[in-house]
Design a protein that fits this description.
single chain, mainly alpha, 4 helices
């Protein structure tokens, strides 16, 4: 997605994952959404923010 690439280039990290999650939510196949949540949960755990990560892993 071009908009995600622009956001990455400008260092808009929060916007990148929000755009990715929005795109995943709009897909008929739930697999991308599940994968995105798993990645976000792991990222929050890596950042020592487990309370936020659990929301994505539950």
């Amino acid at each position: 997605m071009a908009i995600q690439q622009i956001a990455v280039r400008h260092g808009w990290r929060t916007e990148v994952w929000q755009l990715a999650m929005d795109a995943a939510l709009r897909m008929a196949d739930p697999s991308p959404r599940i994968h995105a949540h798993r990645l976000l949960g792991s990222a929050y755990a890596d950042l020592d923010r487990p309370e936020e990560g659990v929301v994505h892993l539950a």
